[in-house]
Write a structure and sequence with these properties.
alpha+beta; 4-stranded mixed sheet; 21 helices; 10 strands; 10% strand; disordered N terminus; binds flavin-adenine dinucleotide
Length: 658
Amino acid sequence: MEPKTGDLKNIQGLSDRDRKMIEEAEAMLGPEPEKMGSVKNMFWGNLRQDLVFPYPETSKEEGERCDSILRNLKKYLEEEHPRMQIDRDEEIPLWAIQKLFTLKIMGLNIPTEYGGQGLGVTSYNRALEMIGSYCASTAVVVSAHQSIGCKSLVLFGTEAQKKKWLPRLANEMLSAFCLSEPNVGCDAGGQETKCHLSEDGQYYILNGEKKWSTSGALSGMFTVMSKQVFTDAKTGKTHEAVTALICTPDIAGVEIYQKNRSKCGIRGTWQARIRFKNAKIPKENLLHKEGKGLQVALTCLNYGRCTLSAGMLGSARTCMDASIKWGQTRYQFKRPLADFELVQMKIARMAAYTYAIDAVLYMTTGFLDRHDSDIMVETAVCKVFASEMGWRVINDAMQIMGGEGYMTEVEIERAFRDARIYLIVEGANEVMQSFIFSYGGKQLAESMLGIQAALLWNSKETLGGNISRMLKHGLNFPILKRALTLGAEVFLGIKPSAPILTGLHASLSPWASRYAGLVQEHSYNFKKISYQIQEKIVTRGAYHARIADMAMWLHAMACVLSKLDRQFKTGAIGPEWERDRTAAFYFLEMGELEFRLAMQSLYNNTDDSMLEANKAALAYSNTLAHANYILPERSPVATGLGKSAKQELTKQFPGVTV
Ligand SMILES: Cc1cc2nc3c(=O)[nH]c(=O)nc-3n(C[C@H](O)[C@H](O)[C@H](O)COP(=O)(O)OP(=O)(O)OC[C@H]3O[C@@H](n4cnc5c(N)ncnc54)[C@H](O)[C@@H]3O)c2cc1C
């Protein structure tokens, strides 16, 4: 392997001058990608084969323990769980939640020393997939409890906090997570809830309001994010940062004033609105460190994004199986529906997407089980991919079922309503696309900017300043080397050689070079378009989405290749494998096509007319009266447990009173 700047610095016998030069280059250009995750490396044109191959597996012992829990879970879900009633009554009965505790599902991911099952992320997601295949409401409640509620304690709690809370959370008590607020949705950093330490230093005084806390009204504890002001002792300057606090509903000043609102889908879940009025939160309830709450929230979201994907996968499989059976047995034009090519296309597509969601999900949970350090882009890709492709599967399934699929007594109708939320929560997909683009390509973009700052003409600098800077950095070998490689690629189209993918099963060998070529294209086109449109790229969401989609298809293809490779090598057989094998090859072809379409649309797109049409639509909207578009806020009436609608709590348009 060619030495990178990081390696160069450590070469024995380097002179002080050379070492300084390398350090300068590192400061200017940022780190080399060796330590980054697999998707970030694709931006650099590298393939981290060591991270993605072989396909991750759990230990035999853990697999067997998980299987045993899942057997009991399946029996319960099949024979007792009231999934249709849950949707109809907008409530999961308490006995059903208690049953999940009894079946040990609520503490799967909590270490055994704190009363949980101590299973890994993969096993836990297998359970979520199974629950999702029966009841999305239940999957969301289990996920909110464990992935974000308990996980914050498992990862960031002190020993005393873990001992106090985790045994109860594993066995009897639900937990919730409070990040969203009336004015805080996608922009999680904009928290308006505030906290400050009391004068005696014993409490955090908490004020503000939280919205949409899943199971908030049913939980014994919830993690609350709030802004705290910090003053720099030296400069006296202040800044705000998010602090995470453990709250309980019995604390004076904590008011759960709305238990739930009626929803399109996952109707059995309850989202609470919680108000904090000078609530005194004991100091020992600080989670992690002051000002580190956003780290708590974002880390927990890595887990939530997987369980969301697992729920979607389970649901997509159920809908696929039901609609294929329908397609085979429903006759029209004297033929089964499955005889028509446009139905066949949907059947194959459902199988391909479902296989790929599975491959991406359990690759991601494998990363988490392995404690890989750089996985935020991968969990974001997993969430966007699973929610988008799962949604496509369920949509196709409903289309195959025709009018029957639209009937409320058919499960696909419920799954269709339930699945829609996955594209919105745990990071709306558009925000995730921008994140994948910016965070995935961040270090590379910074490196490119570093080169530009070091070697290109700057009109704001003097002639002398420009010349001396360019000479100084031009004589720095590591900077020059990266600049020459980049310059040759961006200006002359001379791409560095494609990465190499080795050791694949013989049946996959044609894909090794084909795939590596796409990684090379990804990196080349990211650099080329970034250079072409320069700083405009920062605000151009359409480009973010295209580049994120390219990365998403590429990563999904890598996961599919890895899973296929393992299955070939372990000698999979039978009709299920035949379905999966052909579906996976179909996916690889589709993935390549989708990748190329996204790539071409970087240069050939309809953005200009799109932006014009958007502008006109906004101008027309300005002619419509605000008063006609007020959102009513409603609580469920079916159970009689929700509170009556409180219009005054809904933010209205300025100047409009209800
Ligand atoms: C059923 C349900 C359960 C929930 N559970 C919880 C919970 O347990 N705890 C909790 O804290 N929160 C929870 N939430 C809140 C959830 O996380 C938010 O709904 C989500 O973050 C999106 O915020 P928002 O709905 O306010 O959308 P907004 O932020 O208002 O965004 C609306 C839409 O605008 C677009 N958009 C926004 N920003 C951008 C951007 N930068 N670029 C491009 N497009 C953009 C997206 O399409 C987005 O869908 C839940 C919500 C629901 C509906």
